[in-house]
Design goal:
35% strand, mainly beta, 1 helix, five-stranded mixed beta sheet, 193 residues, five-stranded antiparallel beta sheet
């Protein structure tokens, strides 16, 4: 009887040591390596503009690949996700707009990137993922991290009829802001991550 218990404990310990510690993390999204924006919209009277800038900080890889997804409120994709590489000291412009927009298209603005979808009113959130599977690890050449959270993002929802709109907030990027842990009104908002 003691031998049987010993064998059970031995095999459980052996099995437990072979089980990878991060097995379940494969199924979860890691907040530390992604950037999100809580709102975008596009319809016959509005579009969304974003810019991404690689500030060429020390420790940052000279080229960083990223994937930009415009997710609709029903959790489906709006248009096709953008995948591109941004280099040091470069700024990319991105437009999220409807099909057949009169002046926003890859033909009229060839230097910009576009997510083009349905012309009906659509809205949702934006998710920006790294192309790198391990953005927290230095590049093989040792030139830096391929970390999208170290890039600068800016954006606005533009209401075309009266040329107004409102700014977008990006959570997890270089300028991510957060309140202090005490949430005291007399304390100013603190900065980077």
């Amino acid at each position: 009887m003691k031998t049987q218990k010993f064998l059970h404990i031995f095999f459980l310990a052996l099995f437990g040591s072979l089980w990878p510690n991060n097995f379940n993390s494969v199924w979860a999204y890691e907040n530390k390596s992604r950037v999100i924006s809580g709102y975008w919209q596009s319809d016959s009277k509005s579009y969304t503009f974003m810019s991404v800038t690689h500030a060429s900080l020390e420790g940052l890889a000279t080229q960083i690949g990223l994937v930009v997804n415009a997710i609709q409120s029903d959790k489906t994709a709006f248009g096709t996700a953008l995948t591109f590489t941004i280099s040091s000291r470069e700024t990319k412009r991105i437009f999220i707009t409807r099909t057949n927009h009169p002046f926003l298209s890859p033909t009229t603005i060839p230097t910009a990137a576009f997510i083009i979808g349905d012309s009906d009113f659509q809205h949702g959130h934006i998710r920006i993922d790294p192309v790198s599977s391990n953005p927290e690890v230095h590049t093989p050449s040792g030139s830096g991290f391929r970390d999208v959270t170290m890039l600068n993002f800016w954006g606005a929802v533009v209401i075309e009829a009266n040329t107004t709109g409102f700014a977008m907030e990006f959570i997890g990027d270089m300028h991510d802001s957060k309140a202090t842990s005490s949430m005291d009104n007399s304390v100013p908002v603190s900065g980077v991550n």
